[in-house]
Write a structure and sequence with these properties.
By secondary structure, this protein is α/β, with parallel strands linked by helices. It has one domain: Isochorismatase-like (Rossmann fold, 3-Layer(aba) Sandwich). It starts with 8 loop residues before the first strand and ends in a 7-residue tail after the last helix.
């Protein structure tokens, strides 16, 4: 299989706190964002690509803090049980070395 066909999909920062309106108004076009993200996630799965999710770990007291109600990946994305979630505390998802290791383990030189 060509390297480009192995490129995994990484879904970044689409967490409950951005969609549920509990702490902040939902992000603009929330339904459209979910629909487009689901289409890409479904495409990745159907093409045999791996999918991973990145979750921002905010500071204590933040709606995106670990364990807070806004912290989980938005359920509407349909994350499968075997699809990993990687945390980050800064704007760079690859600050988490485990993500880089996971990507390298997919045998791809690129990500989607």
């Amino acid at each position: 299989m060509p390297e480009s066909s192995l490129a995994p999909l990484i879904v970044i920062d689409l967490q409950t706190g951005m969609f549920d309106g509990r702490f902040e108004p939902p992000i603009h076009d929330a339904e459209g964002i979910v629909a487009r993200a689901r289409a890409v996630i479904d495409w990745a799965r159907e093409s045999g690509r791996k999918v991973a999710f990145i979750r921002h770990d905010g500071p204590q007291g933040d709606p995106l803090a670990p364990g807070a109600s806004g912290w989980p990946v938005w359920p509407g994305l349909g994350q499968a049980g075997d699809e990993p979630t990687f945390g980050k505390t800064v704007g760079d998802a690859f600050s988490n070395a485990a993500l880089g290791e996971w990507v390298a383990g997919q045998g791809a030189g690129a990500v989607i």
